[in-house]
Amino acid sequence: MSSNIINLLWESFLETLLMVGISGGLGAAIGIPLGVFLFVTSPKGIMPKPFMNRVIGTIVNAIRSTPFIILLVAIIPFTRLIVGSSIGTVAAIVPLTIAAAPLIARLVETSLREVDKGLVEAAQSMGATNVQIITKVLLPEAMPGILAGLTIAFVALVGSSAMAGAVGGGGLGDMGIRYGYQRFMPEVMAAVVIILIVFVQSLQSFGDWAVRRASHR
Amino acid sequence: MIDLQHITQEYKTSDGKGTFYACKDVNVHIRPGDIFGIIGRSGAGKSTLVRCINLLNRPTQGKVIVDGKDLTQMSDAELRAERRQIGMIFQHFNLLSSRTVYDNVALPLELVNTPKDKIREKVMPLLELVGLTEHANKYPSQLSGGQKQRVGIARALSSDPKILLSDEATSALDPETTQATLQLLKKINKELGLTIVMITHEMDVVKQICNRVVVMNKGVVVEEGDVIDVFRDPKSEVTQAMLGSALAARSLPQPMIARVKKLLQTERPDGRKLHLMRLTFVGNSTTDPVLSKACSLFNLDFNILLGQIDEIQNESYGTLTLVIEGTPENFKQAVDYIASKGVRVEELTNVI
């Protein structure tokens, strides 16, 4: 493998890292509050708002049911509005974030449901406000589940980022298609796959470690 | 201290047509310093009722008056402030697994932004009171059930409440731990002057630490009174059935009943007859030789089948099941004599 190719692999890896890192971070920043909202406003939640809950829930489901490759091109005008361009790595981050946030929201909502209702009752009996129940009881108690959910979301983002090539986003997946497949360079394809395996494996191990640290059950 | 007036809690049944009453027009008055028991089988409405006291459950109708203030009329903020006066402990402890023992007990104080040093001044003596000082930095998962409940108690006490609600607090604990927990609650009641309201399905728990009790069945109060009176003379069938397990020795084993039946039918000389009797002694009558005196005065013979003595609220309470032999006349006089000494006399000859 020429040093050119090795350089390209390194750059592609950095692009993947950038896309997954930023969209994952932004996705969590939007998805975690969204998940909390979905949980507490559900009909049996601590601040029931059935109508808003239905509306937000439907939007979340709609985004989640759109295949990523379609979402990527469908929101090009929006992407241009946000980052000023519809092509390149930075442009790929917008659809990746929009895909990650609803996934994270649902994963967070599921972890919050696992929190024993007795704990909420206990906090209410102490005179806790709803905000205190969220910050002092629900989020800390659901933290291991939320971290496990974030790990899943980050791994899913690695997969989605492979499609960023469609808008010139680059990254390992794009390189695998262009060099490995279209230029018949199987060794490049193999290298891309191996790097991705090691990358996902490390993400998962890091996630598992974080879950273990947060869990005191 | 606590006045529950006409508490009614309705639920729609699952088909949406009928109405189910978890509580129906319940009136309960709890005095300061009481250890007040609410007892009933599961589904009797006791859990609903106790949750009305801090409005975790808002009753469909009725007033909840704590310390002269009607909680049902309060704003959310006023209610939160009032809830700090009412600690609560739970059957499954409800401790935060993400916090250490110390931080669990500190939580009610954190909620009102108590400074860190003030929290420490409050939490450490409480951990000492419940005997968990050396476990302060452990997580709940590292503790036994009894220790977890003591954390629960310390947490409930950290906001200096005047009332402690206990929702089946000992039901998930083994007998020995139950004892220790009950003794701790009694100590808190005495030393801190806390009013304790506890719900339970175990008569033994009521017997050991409560001074007053209500018995609930299907959402209504079927009996209310001082514990000693309810135990001595249970009025409702539900209470009698529940007492059955607390005073198991009041009933004879089955094979024995058959033998006694046979014995009661045997002919005796001189017109004497056999009677199966149960005597219930309370207080002073437990130490008086009432039975021995009656037998010598009225020329009776007796055979003791079963006896039991117990302490409830520092009063002795005993039952004696025996077969008495005598002439009808003497027997009647003896029964009157024994009853005049404050012993409850029941004839069971035709009951078994």
Can you give me a brief rundown of this structure?
The complex is a heterodimer of chains A (217) and B (352). By secondary structure, chain A is mainly α. Chain A is 80% helix and 0% strand.
Question: Would you kindly provide a written description of the structure presented here, covering whatever features stand out?
Answer:
The complex is a heterodimer of chains A (217) and B (352). With 217 residues, chain A is mostly helical. Chain A has helices at residues 3-40, 50-65, 68-74, 76-83, 89-113, 117-125, 130-161, 172-181, 186-214. In chain A, helix 1 (3-40) packs across helix 8 and helix 8 packs antiparallel against helix 9. Chain B has 352 residues and is α/β, with parallel strands linked by helices. Chain B has twelve helices and 14 strands. In chain B, the strands form three sheets. A six-stranded mixed β-sheet of chain B has the order 6-7-8-3-9-10, with helices on both faces. A four-stranded antiparallel β-sheet of chain B has the order 2-1-4-5. The model of chain B has no long low-confidence stretch (mean pLDDT 88). At the A-B interface, helix 6 and helix 7 of A face helix 2, strand 6 and helix 3 of B.
- Based on Cα principal axes, name the global outline of chain A: elongated
Mean pLDDT of chain A: 94
DSSP helix fraction of chain B: 25-40%
Largest interface: A-B, 21 and 29 residues
- Average pLDDT, all residues of chain B: 88
Attribute tags:
heterodimer, A: 217 residues, mainly alpha, elongated, B: 352 residues, alpha/beta, 6-stranded mixed beta sheet, 4-stranded antiparallel beta sheet, 14 strands
What is this structure's SSE topology?
The complex is a heterodimer of chains A (217) and B (352).
Chain A: H1 3-40, H2 50-65, H3 68-74, H4 76-83, H5 89-113, H6 117-125, H7 130-161, H8 172-181, H9 186-214
Helix pairs in contact in A: 1-5, 1-7, 1-8, 2-5, 4-5, 5-7, 6-7, 7-9, 8-9
Chain B: E1 2-12, E2 19-30, E3 35-39, H1 46-53, E4 61-66, E5 69-70, H2 76-83, E6 86-90, H3 101-110, H4 116-129, H5 145-157, E7 163-167, H6 175-192, E8 195-200, H7 203-209, E9 212-217, E10 220-226, H8 227-232, H9 237-246, H10 254-265, E11 273-282, H11 290-298, E12 301-312, E13 315-326, H12 328-340, E14 344-347
Parallel strand pairs in B: 3-8, 3-9, 6-7, 7-8
Antiparallel strand pairs in B: 1-2, 1-4, 4-5, 9-10, 11-13, 11-14, 12-13
Helix pairs in contact in B: 3-4, 3-5, 4-5, 5-6, 11-12
